[in-house]
Write a structure and sequence with these properties.
Blueprint: H1 2-18, H2 22-31, E1 33-35, E2 40-43, E3 47-50, E4 54-60, H3 61-66, H4 70-76, E5 92-98, E6 103-109, H5 114-132
Antiparallel strand pairs: 1-2, 2-3, 4-5, 5-6
Length: 133
């Protein structure tokens, strides 16, 4: 009985520090996102990012490429806003950005339906919980 109590207490700490409930934690771990008790998210093969101050978006490859970035403005000048851009909605990513720490991570959402729904839930929870801390 002691081991189950340990996992339950750990999950309660994860919920308090990141806002992830038990089912969302399970689905996030399947996608390679591991919420921790200290308020960070471990992104598989990339690193850790704190929940506080992190903005999360669910974007397609086309939407990520479509952004006008500083690099694009430097390379193209004022023509960066008129340069041809591609749009592809088949491949979807969860984008984690934290301007305070200066980190940005991308996690591919494989499959459709349930995984995309989970991606939007993760984005909602992190965006809401990241602002309240």
């Amino acid at each position: 009985m002691g081991i189950f109590k340990h996992y339950r207490v750990k999950q309660e700490r994860i919920t308090q520090s990141t806002g992830f409930d038990r089912m969302l934690t399970f689905h996030a771990r399947v996608m390679g996102i591991d919420p921790t008790v200290d308020g960070t998210l471990k992104i598989r093969n990339q690193g850790e990012i704190p929940v506080a101050g992190t903005t999360v978006r669910v974007e397609s490859v086309g939407e990520i490429r479509q952004r006008v970035t500083a690099t694009r403005v430097i390379a193209w000048g004022v023509f960066a806003f008129t340069a041809p851009k591609t749009y592809d909605s088949r491949q979807v990513f969860i984008t984690f950005e934290n301007e305070v720490v200066g980190l940005a991570y991308f996690v591919e959402v494989k499959g459709t339906g349930q995984n995309r729904s989970t991606a939007y839930k993760i984005a909602h929870v992190v965006n809401h919980f990241g602002r309240t801390q």
